[in-house]
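pipeline/complex-builder :: batch 7 item 3
reading input block
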Amino acid sequence: MNATAIATAVRDGTLSARSAVQTSLDRIAATDGKINAFTAVLAERALKRADAVDASPRRARMKLAGVPFAVKNLFDSAALERRLEAEGAVLVGALNMDEYAYGFTTENTHYGPTKNPHDLARISGGSSGGSAAAVAAGQVPLTLGSDTNGSIRVPSSLCGTFGLKPTFGRLPRSGSYPFVASLDHLGPFARSVADLALAYDTMQGPDPHDVACAQRGIEATFDGLTRGAEGLRIGVLGGWFRSKAMPEALAAVDRVAAALGTTRLIEWPEVERARAAAFMVTCGEGGALHLDDLRKRAHDFDPKTRDRFLANALVPAAWVHRAQRVRHWFARRVARSFETVDVVLAPATPCTAPGIGTEWIELDGQRLPARASVGLLTQPVSCIGLPVVSVPLWGLNPAAPHLPIGVQIIAAPWREDLCLRVAAALEAQGICSAPVAAGL
Amino acid sequence: MDHTAAIDAAAATLGLKITAEQRAGVAMYYGLAAQMAALLDGLPLTPADESGTVFHPVAPEVGE
């Protein structure tokens, strides 16, 4: 069941929260040995919380009554968890990730790789790989993850789930472990757009404990999902967003564009430099954040991230400061492009899920390190904090038709409602969907 | 370009020890960062192009 259906049934009294949570725990027990999405399962706590929901006099009014959810292993009693639980959702566990959220593959040396539920020989994507895999495997209907350079959109694309990276500053990050404060976003994964919107609406609102969190009231999206995409001006991003995409990624965007009736090509200026800006800000802030630990115990770091963090700690301040200026330059130019268009489309990843252990991918005639390059198409967008919904399409890679690939639906800042409306229209047309993986 | 001198100088300044096992990876990723820095330098900016980082003053009620 999806989150909306569970909450409706628990509110109506036709399903108990305990039963919904027990079903989730049973599914986790039956499947996690294969995919390794969870780093911790909180069964006893979850069942106690479910009983509290069942006994609550507010149960019939709780938006997420009895909905099991799980969070990336960098949430620690975070504001977003508390907001979901206040509406009756029940936390069942913590989810695997690239160490310190640095990577796009979730090949975590300490916890092992999270495998793609649709093909166990392939990566789940990252860094929120456990968050996407748990939803794709039907373990929970809702998870939370973080996205600094693509870490919600990349695993959403590779695991075939819906994912929302809100506008930078929309959802508070307090109670989550940071990676790059200038770029960190938190957001939900789900198997339906309605679930995504329901969770997102529940988590909105200002928080004085996150300095980047905007002082904006709740701008609800759920009730507007059925308005469709008609009347919206929609374009397809060209240039970098097409040259760095393999045929399956281009086919996905083109299918979405055709369904939305657009052939309009939009060019953003200097996208490669925007990606470089995101890369450099990540180097500077990520390296500095871990400097003390790198001095004292670099040997404890995951070997897949250790050398990157060490190198990052050494970059000159002038490089990082220039990156922040380029970032702002780019944001101002892209903002102008939204005067003539409401939504733009781009692939979420250059390709479908690579095999676990893949070191290199070839794109646009270049041999590139796989772990740093899967996010080439997401980095320029999160660099300037735009809201994005990633929607999953299927059957576009002839060599691997069982694999999904995502398309980014991107809007101007604070217009998550438009991203979600377009995603809901595509879901209603059957263009995108997020089925539970078969055969687990 | 060889960044060995820059890596060694910055590591010594920051008190970071780069082991033999780590050196090749650090050099590769530092080189990647240097490529990104060159790209960023290639965009003409004016003094009016301000940083993307903005300081937010802290209100008394959320002070520590």
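note: Residues 20-41 of chain B form the longest helix (22 residues).
queue -> next item
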